[in-house]
Specification:
The chain has 221 residues and is α/β, with parallel strands linked by helices. The protein has helices spanning 17-28, 43-51, 61-67, 77-87, 122-129, 166-178, 192-209, and strands spanning 9-13, 32-36, 56-59, 70-73, 96-99, 104-105, 113-114, 134-137, 158-163, 182-185. The longest helix is centred in the C-terminal third of the chain and has 18 residues, at 192-209. The protein binds NADP nicotinamide-adenine-dinucleotide phosphate (NAP).
Length: 221
């Protein structure tokens, strides 16, 4: 198990907003961050590396997967299987992989919908594509602008996570706490279906209000 608070090598698979925000967030907390991309020289990636000069690097999916202690999968759902193939599953064997994806279908003029449509989840699918990795679903239930240092009037929101490997969840909990969240363990990877549905609720609120300034919190007494 990787110890909480330890400096880690974090490999971000995917160069979109989620990959960039989490990559910068973890680099600013002293972790060694590499971003994996089909084209690490593309403008979007090069600009991000420039902005975080000296703190991050960018290479191919497979080089990033081989480099990291912990991987973060932040790919468009439609490209996720290809990204994993390019990363080469053997490079991720025995490692923790944080799955931030949502299995969304985008169609012109319509709100996004879940590709899984009530049958399984992206989290389970990814665990089955990477049987030797410890997949932990996380970060999928909030918009990227609030993934690092979430600042809400009700205090830190809750990040729900799930996965089959307990030590992996301890490692991921420590990493998420470093970014300013409280963490709730929702059980095994099959709970990804709930977390992906929760993302749909988040997206529904975004569509209804035009604002992404919301996050979830479980109230207890
Ligand atoms: N945006 C958010 O606020 C948010 C919040 C929560 C969860 N999510 C989920 O997080 C994931 C990432 O979202 P995002 O908005 O950051 O980015 P995105 O636009 O969904 O795409 C992220 C990356 O996916 C990779 N990709 C696309 N097609 C590919 C293909 N055919 N093969 C291999 N890789 C491919 C690309 O990487 P390269 O071009 O570098 O190869 C791209 O930068 C998605 O699953 C999304 O649903 C997003």
């Amino acid at each position: 198990m990787l110890n909480t608070g330890e400096e880690m090598k974090i490999g971000i698979l995917g160069s979109g907003d989620v990959g960039q925000v989490l990559g910068t967030g973890f680099a600013n907390r002293g972790h060694e961050v590499m971003m994996g991309s089909r084209d690490p020289k593309q403008d979007r990636v090069a600009n991000w590396v420039k902005k975080n000069q000296g703190l991050v690097t960018a290479k191919s999916f497979s080089e990033t997967a081989a480099f990291c202690d912990v991987a973060i999968l932040a790919t468009l759902w439609a490209g996720t299987a290809n990204a994993i193939e390019l990363a080469e599953p053997g490079n991720l064997a025995g490692k923790v992989l944080i799955d931030a994806t949502n299995p969304l279908i985008f169609s012109e003029g319509k709100a996004p919908s879940l590709a899984t449509n009530g049958d399984g989840s992206a989290g389970e699918q990814i665990q089955s594509w990477l049987p030797e990795s410890h997949v932990v679903k996380a970060f999928n239930i909030v918009g990227n602008p609030h993934m690092v240092d979430p600042d809400f009037p009700g205090g830190p929101p809750d990040m729900f996570i799930c996965g089959n490997d307990e030590p992996a969840k301890v490692t991921v909990t420590g990493l998420i706490e470093e970014l300013g969240w409280l963490v709730i363990d929702q059980g095994g990877i099959e709970s990804s279906a709930y977390l992906e549905s929760l993302a749909m609720l988040w997206i529904g609120q975004y569509i209804a209000t035009g604002s992404g300034d919301h996050a979830f919190k479980l109230l207890r007494k």
